[in-house]
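wait is this the right file?? whatever heres the structure
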C-alpha cells in the first residue's frame, strides 16, 4: 500500500473525483481517500508517477506521505493541521479590506473627502476593496473554475460562481452608471466579498473542530517514545526509537518508556500499561514477561529483548487501525456518497432555473440574480461528506482510548445494530486457564499411572484442557517423554503411542460410546459435569485408564456482562463444544438462558450463519480457535487478545480482555450510529430546506427571502455543526451503567478489606467471591479497600468473609 497526502480537497465531491481518477490508473486495485485527514491509500501494482498525474489532472495535488520512521510519526504527519494557520492568516487579511467595504456599502456615516457626494468614486472604491478580498481568497476561484472546466465541479465551484456573479453584475451596473444609464445602480460588491469571508470563517471553525475529532488518535501518537537505550558492542547507546532492531537488547530505567514490544530478560518492575489497555493500575513484570512499546516502567530496572519494532508494535497497529477505520466507508454513508457525486451539478442547475424563473415572472435581473447566488452559496456538499468520517473517527478514538479497537467503520456501525450476542465459553466467559479438579483412576489402576500417561499424551496438545492436565501432572509425577505418532482429532481428542501402548484421550461425551465406563468412572464424570467442569477420559490399548475432571473458572465479570447485554434488549446465546450438562451449569451461573452445546469447531460457523437469519449477530471468542465463527458473524469480537491486535478474524479487539467491554462496544456502536444518523439528517434537511428558501419558493406564501450573505453564513455553520455534533462522542462513558433498574431480588454487600495492593489482589478477591452461590458481580478496589458484591441471594456474612479470607486477605467489616 502507498499513502499520499492530497491537497485541494474541500468536499465530498472532491473526494469522489480523486477516487474516480486514481481508480482508473492501470494497476490500481483499490483507492480510498479520507476527507477528514486528507490522506489517500492506494493498493496495487502501479507507477507512482501515474497516480500523481491522475490526481493533478483531476485538479488536486498529491505527494507521497513519508513512510520511513515510526508509524506514530507517519500518522502525525498525516493528521497535522495545515489548514487552520493558513485560513487564519487569510481571514485576518480579508477582514482588513472587508470592514471598510461593509462600512461603505451599508452605513451612511462620514466618508473621506474624495468619496463624499461622489457615488461613482464610492462604487470604484467598493470594487477595489472587493477585488482585494477576492485576490486573498483566490483559491476558491482557481479550484472552483478549474473543476468546472474539467466537468468535476466541487464546493469551491459553488462559492466561486456565487461570488463572481455578484461581482460581475455589480461591475456591469457600475459601468452602466458611467455610461449614463438610467435607473438605480445595484451594487453587490459587499455580498461578493462577504460570501468569501464567511465561508473562510466556517472552514476555519470546521478545521479546528476536525482536529478535535482526532484528539484520541493524536494522544496515542504522543505516547510513542522518541529514543531508546540499546546494547551495541557491549556498550549502552541512545538511538531513535525507530532504529531499534528486532532481537536487540534494550534497557529501560525507572520512569522510562519502553521503546518496542519485547520480553523481559532481567529485572523486576511494575509497568503502567494504560496506554494500551486503559487500566490505570501497573502490572508486575519479571523475566519472561512480555512488555509493550509506549508503556511506562515505574519502579525497577529492566533489560529486554526486542521482538516487534517500528510498525509491528502493538501501539503502531492500534494507530493504524483507528486511522483506517475512519478512512473506510460505513454502509450507512453510501447514500450520502451517491448524492455527493451529483450534488454540485444539480445545484448549479437549480441556480440557473431559479434565475430564469424569476426573470420569466417579471422580476428585475438583480432580484433574480440574488436568489440564484443564494442558492449557490447556501448549498453544502461538505456536510454530507463529513457526516460519517468525523463520527467514525471520534467513536473509534474513544474506543481505542478505552481498550476497544474497531478495525473498520463497518464494524463500528454493525456493532450498533447487533440483535444477538453469541458467547464462546472457554476463554470468553471463563478465564481460559482450566485446572484439574478431580482424578479418578479405573479399578486396579493408580492416580500416578493415570497422570503419567495423560501427561505424555497431552504434552504436544495445544488445547487448554490438555495443558491444564500437563501442568498438574508435572508437579506431581516425574517428567516423562512425550507420546509419539501424536494426532489431534478435531472434536474427539488426541491420540498417540507411548512405551509401546496406544493412548487415546478426550471428552467423556465423545468417547463414551466407544469405551463404556465402569460405574466408578461414570460417577466421577457425572460429578465433574454437574459442577460445570469437563470430564476427560484416558484410554490405554482400548481399556479405560481413568477420568480426570478439569474445570475452567468463570471470569469474575461474566455475570455482570451478561446482565448488561440483556439490559440492552439483546438475545444472549452460549456456544460451546462442551456437553449439555457442563454448558447448562455454566450458563446458569452467569444468567444465560439459551445454550447451544456439543458443537464441533467446524460446526460453529454454520450455527452463526443460522443465528444471523434472526438479525445482526455478534460472536465473541478468543480470536484463535473461533476464527471461522468470528469471520462468519456480522461482528466478530476477540476477547482475551492482550496486545495481539493483528487478529485477522475479528472485527473488534478488546484489549483489556474484559467481557464487560462487549456491551460497552455495542453501546459505543449505537452512540456512533445515532451520531451518524443525526449528522446525515442535518446535512440532508439543511439542503432540502435551505435551497428552496434561497430560491425564493416561500416568498409568495410567507414573504420569506434569503440574503446571499446569510446563506454563506449558514453554509459555513452547517459543516461546523456536523463536526461539533461528532465531538459529543468524546464525552461517551464506556463504564456508564446500562440504563435499567437492577433486579429487585438481588442482594448487594460492601466488604471492607485489608491487604489488597494491586490489580492481582483485586482479581484474587473477585475469584474468591465468584465461587459463592448466586454470584452476579463484584466491584473490587484496592484503592478504596472495598469489594461491592452483588448476589441473587444473601449467603450470610460468614460465607462472604470466608470467601475473601481464603485468598489471604482480612475482612474488617461487612455492610
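ok assuming it is, sequence goes like this
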Amino acid at each position: 500500500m502507498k499513502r499520499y497526502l492530497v491537497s485541494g480537497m474541500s468536499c465530498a465531491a472532491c473526494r469522489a473525483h480523486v477516487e474516480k481518477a486514481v481508480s482508473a490508473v492501470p494497476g490500481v486495485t483499490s483507492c480510498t481517500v479520507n476527507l477528514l485527514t486528507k490522506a489517500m491509500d492506494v493498493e496495487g501494482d502501479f507507477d507512482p508517477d501515474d497516480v500523481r498525474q491522475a490526481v493533478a489532472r483531476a485538479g488536486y495535488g498529491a505527494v507521497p506521505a513519508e513512510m520511513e520512521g515510526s508509524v506514530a510519526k507517519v500518522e502525525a504527519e498525516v493528521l497535522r493541521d495545515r489548514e487552520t494557520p493558513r485560513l487564519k492568516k487569510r481571514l485576518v487579511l480579508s477582514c482588513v479590506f472587508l470592514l471598510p467595504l461593509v462600512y461603505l456599502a451599508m452605513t451612511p456615516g462620514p466618508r473621506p473627502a474624495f468619496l463624499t457626494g461622489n457615488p461613482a468614486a464610492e462604487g470604484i472604491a467598493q470594487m477595489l476593496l472587493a477585488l482585494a478580498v477576492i485576490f486573498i481568497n483566490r483559491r476558491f476561484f482557481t479550484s472552483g473554475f478549474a473543476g468546472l472546466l474539467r466537468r468535476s465541479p466541487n464546493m469551491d465551484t459553488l462559492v466561486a460562481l456565487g461570488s463572481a456573479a455578484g461581482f460581475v453584475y455589480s461591475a456591469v451596473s457600475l459601468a452602466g452608471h458611467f455610461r449614463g444609464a438610467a435607473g438605480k445602480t445595484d451594487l453587490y460588491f459587499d455580498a461578493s466579498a462577504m460570501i468569501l469571508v464567511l465561508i473562510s470563517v466556517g472552514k476555519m471553525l470546521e478545521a479546528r473542530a476536525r482536529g478535535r475529532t482526532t484528539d484520541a488518535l493524536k494522544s496515542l501518537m504522543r505516547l510513542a517514545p522518541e529514543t531508546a537505550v540499546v546494547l551495541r558492542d557491549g556498550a549502552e547507546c541512545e538511538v531513535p526509537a525507530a532504529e531499534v532492531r528486532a532481537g536487540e537488547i534494550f534497557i529501560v530505567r525507572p520512569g522510562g518508556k519502553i521503546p518496542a514490544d519485547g520480553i523481559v530478560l532481567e529485572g523486576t518492575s511494575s509497568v503502567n500499561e494504560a496506554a494500551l489497555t486503559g487500566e490505570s493500575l501497573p502490572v508486575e513484570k519479571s523475566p519472561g514477561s512480555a512488555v509493550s512499546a509506549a508503556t511506562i516502567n515505574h519502579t525497577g530496572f529492566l533489560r529486554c529483548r526486542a521482538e516487534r519494532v517500528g510498525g509491528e508494535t502493538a501501539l503502531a497497529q492500534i494507530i493504524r487501525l483507528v486511522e483506517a477505520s475512519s478512512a473506510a466507508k460505513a454502509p450507512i454513508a453510501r447514500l450520502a456518497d451517491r448524492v455527493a457525486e451529483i450534488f454540485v451539478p444539480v445545484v448549479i442547475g437549480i441556480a440557473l432555473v431559479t434565475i430564469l424563473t424569476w426573470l420569466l415572472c417579471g422580476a428585475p435581473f438583480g432580484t433574480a440574480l440574488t436568489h440564484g447566488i443564494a442558492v449557490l452559496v447556501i448549498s453544502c456538499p461538505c456536510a454530507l461528506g463529513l457526516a460519517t468520517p468525523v463520527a467514525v473517527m471520534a467513536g473509534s478514538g474513544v474506543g481505542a482510548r478505552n481498550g476497544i479497537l474497531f478495525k473498520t467503520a463497518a464494524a463500528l456501525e454493525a456493532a450498533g445494530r447487533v440483535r444477538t450476542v453469541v458467547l464462546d465459553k472457554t476463554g470468553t466467559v471463563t478465564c481460559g486457564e482450566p485446572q484439574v479438579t478431580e482424578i479418578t483412576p479405573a479399578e486396579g489402576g493408580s492416580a500416578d499411572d493415570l497422570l503419567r500417561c495423560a501427561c505424555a499424551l497431552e504434552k504436544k496438545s495445544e488445547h487448554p484442557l490438555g495443558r491444564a492436565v500437563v501442568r498438574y501432572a508435572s508437579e506431581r509425577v516425574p517428567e516423562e517423554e512425550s507420546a509419539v505418532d501424536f494426532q489431534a482429532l478435531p472434536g474427539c481428542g488426541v491420540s498417540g503411542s507411548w512405551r509401546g501402548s496406544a493412548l487415546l484421550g478426550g471428552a467423556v461425551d465423545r468417547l463414551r460410546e466407544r469405551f463404556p465406563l465402569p460405574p466408578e468412572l461414570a460417577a466421577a464424570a457425572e460429578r465433574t459435569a454437574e459442577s460445570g467442569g469437563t470430564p476427560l477420559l484416558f484410554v490405554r490399548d482400548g481399556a479405560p485408564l481413568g477420568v480426570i475432571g478439569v474445570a475452567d473458572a468463570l471470569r469474575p465479570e461474566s455475570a455482570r456482562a451478561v446482565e448488561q447485554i440483556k439490559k440492552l434488549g439483546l438475545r444472549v446465546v452460549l456456544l460451546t463444544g462442551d456437553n449439555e450438562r457442563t454448558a447448562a451449569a455454566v450458563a446458569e451461573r452467569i444468567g444465560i438462558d439459551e445454550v447451544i452445546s456439543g458443537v464441533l469447531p467446524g460446526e460453529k460457523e454454520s450455527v452463526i450463519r443460522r443465528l444471523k437469519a434472526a438479525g445482526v449477530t455478534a460472536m465473541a471468542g478468543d480470536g484463535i480457535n473461533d476464527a471461522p465463527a468470528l469471520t462468519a458473524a456480522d461482528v466478530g469480537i476477540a476477547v482475551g487478545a492482550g496486545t495481539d491486535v493483528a487478529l485477522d478474524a475479528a472485527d473488534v479487539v478488546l484489549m483489556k480482555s474484559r467481557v464487560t467491554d462487549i456491551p460497552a462496544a455495542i453501546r459505543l456502536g449505537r452512540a456512533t450510529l445515532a451520531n451518524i444518523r443525526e449528522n446525515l439528517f442535518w446535512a440532508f434537511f439543511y439542503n432540502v430546506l435551505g435551497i428552496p428558501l434561497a430560491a425564493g419558493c416561500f416568498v409568495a406564501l410567507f414573504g420569506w427571502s434569503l440574503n446571499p450573505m446569510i446563506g454563506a453564513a449558514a453554509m459555513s455553520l452547517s459543516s461546523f455543526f456536523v463536526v461539533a455534533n461528532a465531538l459529543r462522542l468524546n464525552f461517551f462513558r464506556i463504564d456508564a451503567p446500562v440504563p435499567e433498574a437492577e433486579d429487585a431480588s438481588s442482594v448487594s454487600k460492601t466488604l471492607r478489606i485489608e491487604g489488597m495492593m494491586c490489580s492481582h489482589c483485586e482479581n484474587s478477591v473477585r475469584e474468591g467471591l465468584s465461587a459463592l452461590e448466586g454470584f452476579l458481580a463484584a466491584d473490587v478496589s484496592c484503592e478504596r479497600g472495598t469489594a461491592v458484591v452483588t448476589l441473587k441471594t444473601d449467603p450470610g456474612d460468614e460465607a462472604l468473609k470466608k470467601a475473601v479470607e481464603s485468598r489471604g486477605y482480612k475482612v474488617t467489616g461487612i455492610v
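The first strand starts at residue 2 and ends at 7. so i think its the right one actually
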